[in-house]
Amino acid sequence: MRAEERHQRLLAWARSEGRVEVASIARELGVAVETVRRDLSGLERRGLVRRTHGGAYPVESVGFETDLARRGTLHVEDKRRIAAEGVRLLGGAETVFVDEGHTPRLLASLLPADRPLTVVTASLPTAAALAGSPNTTVLLLGGRVRTPTPATAGSWAAAMLSGFVIDLAYIGSDGISRESGLTTPDPVVADVKAKALEVSRRRVFLGHHGKFGAGGFCRFAEVADFEAIVTDTGLAAAEAHRYSLLGPRIIRV
Description:
By secondary structure, this protein is an alpha/beta fold. The protein has helices at about 5-15, 20-30, 35-45, 70, 75-90, 100-110, 125-130, 155-160, 185-200, 235-245, and strands spanning about 20, 50, 55-60, 95-100, 115-120, 135-140, 145, 150-155, 165-170, 175, 180-185, 200-205, 220, 230, 250. The strands form 4 sheets. Strands 6-5-4-9-12-14-15 form a 7-stranded parallel β-sheet, sandwiched between helices. The chain has a 3-stranded antiparallel β-sheet with strand order 1-3-2. Strands 10-11-13 form a 3-stranded antiparallel β-sheet, covered by helices on one side. Helix 10 (about 235-245) links the parallel strand 14 (about 230) and strand 15.
């Protein structure tokens, strides 16, 4: 099998499964472990995967974005811990922006139901899940409903946000790096995220460690814009420290 064909298969597996393991892929392809490692290093140099110990994660770019159903099957336990830790940062916030994406959606399901809370979101699943809570007022942003994540985006959503002053924003992204900041593939989604950050007093980023070091097409924030970054322990302590030097508190759970 030629190297380019292996690269295509490796990338397809990574995008389908959310992660590839070097040893299992070597057995599947009938090649040496060192060959798979070289292939993954080549894909990483092209910005298509992010290497981790023993494997790699796909990097979502302008040309690739998984849908919410698929995201809901990847790294679920890590995302639940991240979401639960994010809720602990709520404090006395009375108005909250909850971003689109699976981890923010998990967080929304854990928000306290025993006190008045106003939740602003572009996510249709999040709005629907919270709509029945008697103490929660849900404000769904208007605009075009986009796929693969069912959420509103565009100038109407950003204009609606501009009329708010929000206590706390929970933000996700497709990639975060110390050099490029927070990025996402779609410009209209970037506009909504940027506006949510602009009108919020406090900002918290929620993201699996596979997001770190990845860069996308549209930058909407800098790492320094956040008071806290919540991720899992897959992010090495040394790398977490490097992010903390830019300003935010890094919480690994």
